[in-house]
Design goal:
alpha/beta; 37 strands; 2 domains; 7-stranded mixed sheet
Length: about 475
């Protein structure tokens, strides 16, 4: 096959979105819509990929800076689709082969349709090949006007006659072009239309007059749905999520209520895992086999092992959870929390940058931050690692088998030795040796009759200031 080059149009403002954010950066099932387009384009293994930016160009470039091999060109001012493609000439003028033109706001296009487009275009030697679809309501789309079986021209909605508006075959805005002579042909496009813009669709007539072939590929209408409003954004997101749910259920995952599950495109879930209603799983999360994720849980870009149970209303962000661990309910695992195999975290426990070793547990009302906790450690209710001294975050180390009593404050940096005990209510400011007992409270003193004496005192009439 000839070498392939991709150009993606992403310069538009998206006025109907009513947003300061560039349209192509609005998220569809967890990813900016242009990321869906780029992922599909990558399946063709193109020699180059160029993104045409315009409105908020810097924001779009910044959002995509992590992707290798992208080139950006700026369309300014924005004078139509033909003008947009012409801005890529400095990047592609010395290239040969096939150019595939995509739109950054059409995220449902499949790799299969792109492959059919490329094969049709290359096998026929056409100057251009257009992806079309037949729809019930063609309003707003350019219409495909045919002469017999051959495409003759494309007419935009605002320029169409009443008879042409009855045509139900529409232009998707997705094309393959032979690079030979393409930019010269674009320069012959005139802005003779209602919008006073340079339409790429005019190339169909131009090529036909030159005696060059123009072909079409008919696609599923859902694949070419563009996003121009918040309502369309929600509709397309729902389609992407439904596709993801079907993929997961076919692979052996139980999703009890697909209508209330929000699972992003890049999430991976193993077989025999159960997803209860009202769960959100986002980003590049991986969940192993035989897990159970209960209602109200939100998981973001985390890695979860096999046989893990996450109870209701937990928030887990950029965390690691080992096999057979148990979390929640109402737990919060923040960035770099690392629960090892069979560890347990319970009600209202928060972890941040903390390793909780295999078989260790913290079941109630604790904050564990910037800590390394060994195996089979018990963290009592109300324990706090006091990690911040006002300037830097300091580390707490608790070695294997230690027992931390309830209502303990561990003032970092501090180390609790293996097998040591810390008594309830202790404030630990110094290291505790292995197998030692640390206590900080003085001896208890009981004052007999104190309550009766307090009641006998006359009330103080001094006003209380709040």
């Amino acid at each position: 096959m000839p070498e392939l080059h991709i150009v993606i149009l992403a310069a538009g403002k998206g006025t109907r979105m009513k947003s300061a954010r560039p349209k192509v950066l609005h998220r569809v099932a967890g990813l900016p819509m242009i990321e869906h387009v780029l992922a599909t384009a990558a399946t063709l293994a193109p020699r180059s990929t160029t993104v045409v930016v315009g409105h908020e160009a810097a924001a779009v470039e910044s959002a995509l800076k992590g992707r290798a091999g992208l080139s950006f060109v700026v369309q300014e001012p924005q004078l139509g689709t033909a003008h947009a493609l012409l801005t890529s000439e400095p990047v592609l003028r010395n290239e040969a082969g096939t150019l595939v033109l995509l739109s950054g706001d059409v995220p449902l296009l499949s790799a299969g349709t792109l492959m059919r487009l490329r094969e049709r275009h290359d096998s026929t030697g056409a100057a251009a090949t257009v992806v079309t679809a037949r729809v019930e309501n063609p309003y707003g789309y350019g219409r495909i006007v045919r002469s017999g079986e051959q495409i003759a021209r494309i007419v935009e909605e605002k320029d169409a006659t009443p008879a042409e508006r009855e045509i139900r075959e529409i232009n998707s805005g997705i094309y393959a072009f032979a690079l030979r002579g393409l930019f010269d042909a674009i320069r012959s496009v005139a802005a003779q239309n209602v919008q006073k813009e340079y339409y790429l669709t005019d190339l169909v007539e131009i090529f036909r007059k030159q005696g060059r072939a123009v072909e079409t590929v008919v696609s599923n209408p859902d694949e070419i749905r563009g996003i121009n409003s918040r309502r369309e954004l929600a509709e397309v997101s729902r389609i992407v999520r439904q596709q993801k749910h079907v993929e997961l259920m076919d692979a052996g995952v139980t999703i009890e209520d697909p209508d209330t599950a929000y699972i992003d495109r890049d999430v991976v879930i193993g077989p025999d895992t159960i997803i209860h209603p009202g769960v959100s799983i986002e980003g590049r999360t991986t969940i192993g086999s035989r897990c159970e994720i209960h209602s109200g849980v939100r998981i973001i870009s985390s890695q979860i092992g096999d046989g893990v149970t996450i109870l209701n209303h937990c928030v887990i962000t950029e965390a690691l959870i080992g096999d057979e661990a148990r979390v929640g309910p109402f737990a919060h695992l923040r960035k770099d929390a690392d629960l090892r195999a069979q560890a347990r975290v319970g009600n209202f426990v928060e972890l941040k940058k903390t390793v909780l070793g295999a078989g260790s547990k913290s079941m109630h009302l604790a904050y564990l931050g910037d800590a390394i906790i060994g195996e089979k450690v018990n963290i009592g209710a109300g324990t706090i690692t006091c990690n911040y001294d006002g300037t830097v975050k300091n580390k707490t180390i608790i070695d294997d088998g230690a027992f931390i009593g309830s209502d303990t404050q561990l003032v970092a940096p501090v180390t609790i030795g293996a097998g040591a005990y810390v008594g309830s209510g202790t404030t630990v400011r110094e290291n505790v040796p292995p197998k030692a007992l640390a206590v900080s409270a003085g001896k208890q003193r009981n004052i007999e009759g104190w309550v009766d004496k307090k009641k006998q005192k006359k009330p103080d009439n001094t006003p209380v200031t709040r």
